Amino acid sequence: MTYKQLRVTRTSPALWRVAFDAPPINLIGPQMVVELRELLDELESDPLVSVVIFESAIEDYFLAHWDIAADPELVNSLPKGPTGYHPWLDILIRLSKVPAITISAIRGRARGAGSEFVLATDIRFASREKAVLGQFEVGTGAVPGGGTPSRLPRLVGRGRALEILVSASDYDGELAERYGYVNRALPDAELSDFVTTFAERVSKFDLRAVQEVKAFVNAVSLAPDEEFPPQMDAFWASARRPETQDRAGQLFAQGLQQASETELNLGDTLGRIEVPEQPPRAR
Amino acid sequence: MTYKQLRVTRTSPALWRVAFDAPPINLIGPQMVVELRELLDELESDPLVSVVIFESAIEDYFLAHWDIAADPELVNSLPKGPTGYHPWLDILIRLSKVPAITISAIRGRARGAGSEFVLATDIRFASREKAVLGQFEVGTGAVPGGGTPSRLPRLVGRGRALEILVSASDYDGELAERYGYVNRALPDAELSDFVTTFAERVSKFDLRAVQEVKAFVNAVSLAPDEEFPPQMDAFWASARRPETQDRAGQLFAQGLQQASETELNLGDTLGRIEVPEQPPRAR
Amino acid sequence: MTYKQLRVTRTSPALWRVAFDAPPINLIGPQMVVELRELLDELESDPLVSVVIFESAIEDYFLAHWDIAADPELVNSLPKGPTGYHPWLDILIRLSKVPAITISAIRGRARGAGSEFVLATDIRFASREKAVLGQFEVGTGAVPGGGTPSRLPRLVGRGRALEILVSASDYDGELAERYGYVNRALPDAELSDFVTTFAERVSKFDLRAVQEVKAFVNAVSLAPDEEFPPQMDAFWASARRPETQDRAGQLFAQGLQQASETELNLGDTLGRIEVPEQPPRAR
Prior knowledge:
The structure is a homotrimer. By secondary structure, chain A is α/β, with parallel strands linked by helices. Chain A is built from 13 helices and 8 strands. In chain A, strands 1, 2, 3, 4, 5, 6, 7 and 8 form an 8-stranded mixed β-sheet that branches. Chain A is globular, with a radius of gyration of 18 Å. The relative contact order of chain A is 0.13. Chain A binds chain B through residues 137-139, 141-144, 149-150, 152-154, 156-163, 165-169, 178-180, 223, 227, 230-231, 234, 238, 241, 243-244, 247, 270-271, 275, 279-283, and chain B through 14, 47-48, 99, 101, 122-124, 154-156, 177, 180, 182-184, 198, 201-202, 204-214, 216-222.
């Protein structure tokens, strides 16, 4: 397979770098999904890879979010992966379990499915000045479907997880570190060297020890797989509601999914869109 | 019902503010318990409320603590609530599960049952200069009975939870944030605007999405209900001990339950009271 | 029993201080293991002890790490303790469950089994300038066997736990506090007074309340005992590999287990040792 949206560099047999390169803003669309599945197949079968760095080749965006303009059937109709779940869940569950250590080097926006991706990696290092994390879905009327209601409370506690999820706000690197959303925020000028040095170090250690430690940690810290599908179902159900469509329509009119002020400052934008006329009354 | 100790303001159908107003120090006594039960009935049945802010109308005190001078029978003899547990446990368990997002805007003291209350809400924002949190019970010889041994380790980890519980010390806003006891500490001058802006934002989002996200987070982060009653039993048993009565007597003589230096600096006071003559020897 | 490597001081019946005194660097060897078992017997049976401070009598080292030059049979052949597990696991499991509150006052290095020890105590206070924590095992090719893959994710979350474990790096007091690895880092000049004041305060409280609170917190926060033995088995298996022996040999040649630059800066040293010629290929 030739990757089109992933730049995969094998710095050594043990250390791989994967840069997201889907201009203009690194949306997670059907092509990205197909390539991530292929990458996971490689990571699961390669006998030597021990550390993988995920980073962005695009200024201002790590992974913007899910491509909600793409026909959902393009992803939904893909052959089932090993878990049997929706392809995005399948990718995230497998990602957390690959034998190699996965590191997100977050510079730019990682919202929605982008945040779900970094939460499914093992270690998150963020640019203090340029990282922006968030789960913006509730601001559009949708329920985040890629596992954050399961992963985030285990990482940052119930209070901060609920705040992040229901506020749909942007969290910069510094606040994300204070909350435990990322391991550590580093000055942007130091991030790349820090991550490379860290990854090279680990990649020289005995990969059997690295893998065994990860397996032990996974056994006590991962959410059970079966927690995830109801959340994905809730996402699709909530995304289909007229009020969610209304809000999404407003956002598209303001530049959603383009390199735009709306994408740069999506957290703020969500606080300013018009509330649909028919507020929900059901409980 | 007309609330006497709660000031309930419906800023909008989706956003309610509840200010504790039980001078002089916002003790949690029988009347407060009755009113909180009534409020929960409203929150559980109202179809539109999406966000609730809890705050204080009293300078220096958010919720001082349980009113230990009141006749316990006034609360114990109340009709059973939905959980069938002690009314205070019933209130806290229901509070964590109401569909709306609950926010504590903590300015002043929130100790003992006051701390238990904020830990049962979803999100805690604290005044950096004026918030004081703590579980002072062990300093009197009593076991905290309202669930903190269950809720706090899940929020801040075993080490910090044990420190907070056995030290019976005061934690200011800044340290409470570092420990994860609160989501965030804000400069006192900014707290009210921050909380209002946050709550208004969330209240304009689709309440179905807000509620569904909360339900998913609750499913993985709340303590099982059955953990709580043994802790409440331990509270009553420990509160009846002569040595606990001795310590409480000393505290009352020094101004406990009044607007006093003792209440303002209860953590320090506990370190200075006389140790009862008969130290406990049983194990 | 006369302790040779533990200095046990009963400041009062309720407050004990235990200083590690095994020059030159407080290695955890067979004698230390025997003495810690004896100490646990005392702590489990003494009816009055309520608080125990663990500290170091040795400059620069709290507990360096396991003595890997000692014949493993000296420990393995000790009579089984109450849990029936390996003596080191037995010590750590019992330590977390003793009725008294245990406090680590960390000044100097606490790596490997030294870190495992402090993680099994209840509360960790660290010198901001002089504490160094870490799990260096993976840097030698070994899997940490004393429970950190179980205890650390529950304390600091999956991401930071994996980082600490696979990086084998040194964590100073300040970073350890930001990660939640320790409760709090204090200026070195204040650490001793702070810990003493804290411990004296708690030691004057009703020990029944202290013990009951600890039991409630333990019930919801300790890892199940049965998680630990597979990790210890993985340690021994990984320690026997030729590549681990190679790395350990290099470290001994550079001063491992002596008062040396290598021990002072073990995290850095691990990044510079030669990678064994036969990299592992099995998965």
